[in-house]
């Protein structure tokens, strides 16, 4: 039996006899004698071996035409064709035709977490790479700690961090380094004189030591809340209601001084704190209002008494001066006459008396 086989451009023919590769056909017209089978391959595509590749590679001609890429377990290989990323090769053995396109390969070891290979970020973001890459973002105002299999490894700066995706457990704990605020609201407390009240307290803090906050302590925010709550209860319990109201603005400083060492051990710095509200029960409010009204009345009475005393003292001094000075007496008389005259609309004169003379007697002694 004779067969005529035509091999076109960028094609290769493999001649098999009894499942054994006996000849490689390149471009051109070929005559095949006997009971042989011919498979034609496109050199622009990946070579797919019809059976075990190792057996085919025993043919030196075919072996010289193929580039073999072996990908072991826990590895991937990035294939680039003419400089452009094309595919991710998973564990296995691959054969590519030589000379048609420029194939380049970058091998990556997935048994570790750090991406030490020279792979650009845009490739790590490629949809074909998503399964093999873990991505963590640390915001500009944050810091983060990297834990591998539960063990702290290093601190991560702001930015995007990529790690290989494998069986190794990775955890990234982030923390906001900006100033934050904790509200300690609705604390029902008893003062030293057994007055019940509710207090709203606030604390502004900032993380200054991320190692203490995240590694040496668990739930540092809860610990801060409890520490401030207990300090507030202890301090208020040592003051009477009047002392509390008088020292309201200074209480925060004294409380912070009490818990300073605990706050430092949490890796925090307190920038501000204070009592936002002191809320009294309804009956206590009424009593306080009554006390306030009584105090204001007492103040008003005291002021009135002082004014009356001052007025009396002024009259006494005036009387003494008038007694000692006749001219001052006349001036005072004229002042009163002027006041009386202001209230008189008109004067009617009757009789034949000497009115002018009488007026002179009033003002001239």
From TrEMBL:
One of its GO terms (cellular component) is plasma membrane. Pfam families: Band_7. It comes from Flavobacterium crocinum. Belongs to the band 7/mec-2 family. This is Peptidase. Residues 133-292 form the Band domain. PANTHER family: BAND 7 PROTEIN-RELATED, BLL5629 PROTEIN. It is found in: Membrane. It is a single-pass membrane protein. The lineage of its organism: Bacteria, Pseudomonadati, Bacteroidota, Flavobacteriia, Flavobacteriales.
